[in-house]
Amino acid sequence: MEPRRHAAAIVAVLALLLAAPAMGQSAPTPRQAEALATYERALADFKSILAERRRQIEAKEPLPNLPGQALYLARVAVISSYKDLTDAMPSRIGRPNKFEIPPAYFDADIEPLVDEYGKLFDIMEAPPASAQYSPTPFKDVVDLAVAIARVKGLASEHAETAGRISLGLFFAETNGKQNVRNARSNTYMGSFQTGPSEDRNGRRKWEAIKGEIAAIDPALSARDDREEARVRGTDPRFNHWTNVRDGLMNAHADLFHEIPGIVKTLSDPIDQMKLFELIQIVPTPTRSALKSGDLLNYRVSSPTIMKHLRNNSIFAFGRADRARSSASYREILAAMWLFSRKFERAMAKFAEIRGR
């Protein structure tokens, strides 16, 4: 064989040898094929329900009861099936996305679909015509929380922390929108998304400290009197001030005295907000974790508690996460990545309010 032909033959053989692994990888395994098909179905379903809700809204057709539930479940299915796909095919993990969702859970190419999801919820959760707005909704949250914290005995620094944490709760519950309804529940409404019983409980607790509030902050107490007069005869959950006040008093104010210890354990302000959001989601085990003296290693294993976490987008996405039967609070906080962007917005708004 001529030298040139001999060299060409060697190159051809080498090319085949080098191509063999890639060629072998081109055919997906049964697990990969199943994961891809499941994701494509979930994505098609998500697109379909988005289009259906948009059509119904624009045609002014009556919406089904809890019109956001099907949308929410379809979005969960998309994220879950994508995580299963990237577990089976790590090469499918793509670029970062504007929602700051870990790329293993979310394909940045579908950002416009999630934008549409948010727009539909804005329409479906629009406040009722009777809602009573505040021109200073973010400042109201901070002012109320700081005043309550001072009555609970906190020093100025930790009272400010209570204000920042409470602003985070406002963003976690409603993305910082006041007086909203709830497209996934007929019970929880308003800026802090309370039910009637929670609102009554918070109001009762507020009445018990109102005298102390008036003593330390007469201006805030006077504002409260005006809002009480304004809301009389209507649902107090659709007055921003009274709903924030009652929501804080119902679920969180009793734990404000724990803030100094929480700050020592959780130095990250976002983790502090996550913990108080857990008081909203799973109050009993969170209170037990705080009392345990070993917050981060405190473990929950109740199927009911794990279900509540999943229903609030914690350990909700992908087979591996959903298969968990228990979790420590360290693991729970780490799994709350869907809340992080909201809390970052809250921190920025808090700095703006305080002129920092």
Give a quick precis of the structure.
With 356 residues, the protein is an all-alpha fold. It has 16 helices and 2 strands. The N terminus is likely disordered.
What does this structure look like?
With 356 residues, the chain is mostly helical. The protein has two domains: 30-124; 137-353, no CATH class. 66% of the residues lie in helices and 1% in strands. The chain has 16 helices and two strands. It has helices at residues 3-26, 30-58, 67-88, 111-124, 137-151, 156-174, 196-216, 218-231, 240-251, 259-265, 269-281, 283-292, 303-311, 319-322, 329-334, 337-353; strands spanning 299-300, 327-328. It has a two-stranded antiparallel sheet with strand order 1-2. The chain starts with a helix and ends with a helix.
